[in-house]
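Something for you to look into today, if you have time. Could you write out one complete protein record for me, on any chain you like? The space below this message is yours for that.
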Amino acid sequence: MNWLDIHGVALRYQLRRGSGLTLVLLHEMGGSVESWRDVIERLPQSLQVLAYDMRCAGQSEKLVGTMSIDAHCADLAKLLDELAITGPIALAGVAVGAAIAIRYAATHRDQISHVIAMAPACGVAPEAKERAGQAIGQIREQGMRQVFLGLLERGWPEALRTDAERFAAFRGRCLGNDPRGFAHFFEMLSGLNLEDDLASLPTRTVLVAGIYDALRPPAEIQRLGGFAPHVETLDVASGHFMQMQSPRWVARLLADFVCANLSAHLSYRAFMAQADNCLGDAGHAA
């Protein structure tokens, strides 16, 4: 692991050099580079892979005050520049990481070739904003435990806890987050609306929903897909934190999507049919 000062913030990153296209991995709210560990080790060695802890997350620097999605995009742009990584670049993100991938791709269209947005957090519905505000206040006053464990029950249900060690490690890492930083992410999400950004995404974009995800269920992902007819949506047998719940399948999705010489209009229904043997392994490391 290494650190770089980006816009006055120390960001921790992991870069695996490769001869092919660069794949940038963006973690979920409360996550870190470790969220992608089991996926990275399954990706083809030809891929150049960059993962990093966002500001206020993992082992990157924790800040006071507010944050914006555009600040996160500026961090990513500067990190790529410091590491001398140019296009084409594929972005893959989960939840808030998927939101940052969407905004970055919409505003850096000449640089980004692919977007894989898993359980993308494109905003909070108006009827849920009051509840979100209460949760933010609770995190700031009482810490991580009560709010986060409630989110975990909905995003990583019992049916997917087939690897107890992986689940326990993720739970523990997230409870170790700085509550102020986690609240910053939550507050950013509550004020977000990325619906207009979706139409600007590259042709090779897929929005992925987990059928066991009560935080961002397939109906919401289908709704988001309606803002961009060229973007395909995909339902998979996983949950909210699918890169940890189904690492073998996510690695295969990323590898097939990014590495193969695919038609710009590839149907992921066909990919699903080929990957049935992987989809049944939600939560397994194998």
Summary: The longest helix spans residues 69-82. The chain has one domain: 2-279.
